[in-house]
Amino acid sequence: MSEIKKLYKYPEIGKLERELDQIIKFLNDNNITINELKTIVNKLQQQSGGSGITIVGEKYPPVDADKFIFQDSVQSFQYVTITWQQLKSFFALASHNHSKSQITDLNEGLVGTKDVNESAIGNNKILFYNSTSDKLEYKELKEGLVGTKDVDESAIGNNKILFYNSVSGKLEYKILNEGLVGTKDVDESAIGNNKILVYNSTTGKLEYQTNSSSPNPVIGNVVQSALAISTSYVDLINKTASIVAGDFLYCEVYGRAYNNSGSNRTFRIRLDFGGSLLELIAPAALTTANYSPIRVMFTISVLSASETIVTGYWTQIAALGSGVSAALSGAVSMAWLSIAANRTGSQTIKIQMMSSGTGTQDFSGGSVIRRYGAA
């Protein structure tokens, strides 16, 4: 009976499996042999539209000449055959490999999640991401090596450095003397003594030009009118300036000193340069109810950070007014001061005036401080 059970496992008679136990019982009860059973099976298959298949055993693996049976839907599901070689060819066609020309976009999507555009592929080119197309594209190796920006090497040369060109979106080589003032290039073709940098909006560069206006060396210029003078120094001028080694400063007081105190008075003028003091005393006292045109000059030579020479010169031309006792024309006083301290950097410069006594006394005139750089 084991051969009978094995026989009924094949799909051609699978629908009779539910009746297997009954058939076996029937065979046993009626002493039916295996050969008789095969005859019965063939008849059953013919009655159910079968082809009278006789099963003789199993085979594996099949060879190309072996045949397989299947029902043809075109021929009313009659049984037909196909060889193993034909069957392999059919499955190969159903799952065949396409050629590159048959598949579009075969070169895309191969690097991470990004497509690759191979239209510009070539020797010594590498892949760069293009945010506009959202693809990886091939470019020459010399480009795109500085951050995310391409490098244009068409103007490469000695003593040139890279600058960004917002128009081309690339870094370009330019001569070293350009682009050093803020974001603007400097055209040095017209460089020369006493020229200044002026921006040219047409070229977009800074260019050297002759200064059309005279340089203004004045640090300060103050005019006083009847400034009261007494026994303590008062400022005629007080200014702050940035001093460098090699600077030369010219400080001048001009005007008239007036004395109506009832007594003779001697006036003093001093220069305070960063705390270093040089004092000048009038060459003659001014008698009461008189005035005198005066002129006082100081010069400051900052030779170095630790060497400064200051000189002073006072001219008191004459005593004018009622009760003049003496003419003072030509009276001169000179002095000088050597400073070893550092007077470069930000310095306060003052010219001050005082009198030898109290009473009605004043000064009217101007004070000016000029600076000239080293030649």
What's the short story on this structure?
The protein has about 375 residues and is mostly beta strands. Helices cover about 10% and strands about 45% of the residues.
Note down, in words, how this protein is organized:
- The chain is 11% helix and 43% strand.
- It is mostly beta strands.
- It has 4 domains: 1-58, no CATH class; 61-98, no CATH class; 125-210, no CATH class; 218-372, Jelly Rolls, CATH 2.60.120.
- Strands 12, 14, 17, 18, 19, 20 and 22 form a 7-stranded antiparallel β-sheet that branches.
- Helix fraction by DSSP (H/I, runs of at least 4): 10-25%
Characterize the main sheet. 7 strands, antiparallel
Query: At the third CATH level, what is the topology name of the largest domain?
Result: Jelly Rolls
The level 1 CATH classification of the largest domain is Mainly Beta
Number of helices: 4
* Total separate domains: 4
CATH-derived architecture of the largest domain: Sandwich
Name the structural class.
mainly beta
